[in-house]
Amino acid sequence: AQKVTQAQTEISVVEKEDVTLDCVYETRDTTYYLFWYKQPPSGELVFLIRRNSFDEQNEISGRYSWNFQKSTSSFNFTITASQVVDSAVYFCALSADYNQGGKLIFGQGTELSVKP
Amino acid sequence: EAGVAQSPRYKIIEKRQSVAFWCNPISGHATLYWYQQILGQGPKLLIQFQNNGVVDDSQLPKDRFSAERLKGVDSTLKIQPAKLEDSAVYLCASSLTGRREKLFFGSGTQLSVL
What we know:
The complex is a heterodimer of chains A (116) and B (114).
Chain A: E1 3-5, E2 10-14, E3 19-21, E4 24-26, E5 33-39, E6 46-52, E7 59-61, E8 64-69, E9 74-79, E10 88-95, E11 104-106, E12 110-115
Parallel strand pairs in A: 2-12
Antiparallel strand pairs in A: 1-4, 3-9, 5-6, 5-10, 7-8, 8-9, 10-11, 10-12
Chain B: E1 5-7, E2 10-13, E3 19-24, E4 31-37, E5 44-50, E6 53-56, E7 65-69, E8 75-79, E9 88-95, E10 104-105, E11 109-113
Parallel strand pairs in B: 2-11
Antiparallel strand pairs in B: 1-3, 3-8, 4-5, 4-9, 5-6, 7-8, 9-10, 9-11
């Protein structure tokens, strides 16, 4: 079975703090993809990153960084020096099960609130 | 580049009524998805189209939900009759090829069933 768990339902930080959003996944597939999406109050999910299961290199994009560890089945997301505009719901998602179209399975999301 | 368009933005109906949602994906995108997002949860895939064929509808409640993709472009999702538990945001998304690439989402239709 495929599953994504985001244990943190809500996180509140003050601007300029660093914050890490946790994501743990389950899959029996050896080839899979992991994603992070941001959902601002407007409701539209915005793609942030895609990582395949064979690439365990960490990635940094500006204030965003991602830590992928297959050994612990985790794909955590860190925002450095958070800003008010980072306030949103963040979803981690897994795409596996290639024979069934590789559908995207989402975690329950973490609502991040960044206060000025 | 125009994004994924959805309408209406909001819909309020009474239980047992019917409702339809419309989606226009990004031009040239072969794959179209309908997701249901219940408050406080992550989106759940209802149906995935590749051009105008269905790839996955395993989680679509087929006794009340139906969807079609006309000529491999626009899509309509219908609920008939609606139940209280259908209250959710219905998100449409599209992608270029459907090969586990990034999805582009619309703003969704928020449905309230009273």
